[in-house]
Amino acid sequence: MESLVIGAIASLGAGLATVIGALPILLPINLTQRIQGIMLGFGGGVMLAATSFSLIVPGTEAAVAQGQSQASAALIIVAGVLLGGVFLQLAHRFMPHEHFFKGKENVTHNNLKRIWLFIAAITIHNFPEGLAVGVNFGNNNIADGIPVALGIGLQNIPEGLVVALSLVAEKYSAGYALWITLLTGLVEPIGGLIGAGVVSIANFILPWAMAFAAGAMLFVISDEIIPESHRKGLEKEGTIGVMLGFVVMMFLDIALG
């Protein structure tokens, strides 16, 4: 019971780091077209690095730790990534997104749809991260659980900033952007509770969940984020953002293990 509580609190703390990352939107920042291009690219870079270092690599390691061969682990990751991509494609086609457009002025439907798919991908990716935190604490492995929770929390800071900036750029209020950012982070304690409470089941689904989230994020990066960051002649700004986002997230993942 103690490990369940600690796991839930740790994953909640990691999830709340998204809101900490979003706080700069309260500052009087002028989001010019160039800054928006860089930040959108930054979001794509963060997601790309998280796909590789936070999801695919640890997902493969988790599958091998379960007794899978390297080839079987690779097949699990491939299948999960493809399923995640298919899921986002279906969401792209059938998501009832009209609700998000109502009452918004000077904003295109396609742009809002991109932003909400981006937020959906971040939210999906937060679940297996919470699961990983919960599994560590559920195994009574607090020595490993605390660094995992801390590392994931620090990774969530730039993700929270990108989510919030994306919403503010689409004329949403700062308060609304903070609220949505909080909701994306609150998916983590749900995963944490499941991971800590049902360790054996969570251990089994962890590689699949990580690969699924990686596929969802790859879909959004390729289909929406990078093309959008290159619109209106902002190719260089978008590319600079992708590079910066990738190296920031890569540093956090490698430095924090």
Automatic annotation (TrEMBL):
Q: Which UniProt keywords apply?
A: Cell membrane, Membrane, Transmembrane, Transmembrane helix, Zinc
What's the name of the protein?
Protein gufA
Give a yes or no for keyword Membrane in this entry.
Answer: yes
Can you tell me which family this protein belongs to?
Answer: Belongs to the ZIP transporter (TC 2.A.5) family.
Question: So where does this one cross the membrane?
Answer: 6-27, 39-59, 71-91, 112-128, 148-169, 176-199, 205-226, 238-256
One Pfam family name from the record?
Zip
Specify where it is mainly localized.
membrane
Where does the source fall among the domains of life?
Answer: Bacteria
What Gene Ontology cellular-component terms does the record carry?
plasma membrane
GO molecular function per UniProt: zinc ion transmembrane transporter activity
UniProt keyword annotation of Zinc present: yes
Q: How does it sit in the membrane?
A: Multi-pass membrane protein
Can you say where in the cell this protein is located?
A: Cell membrane
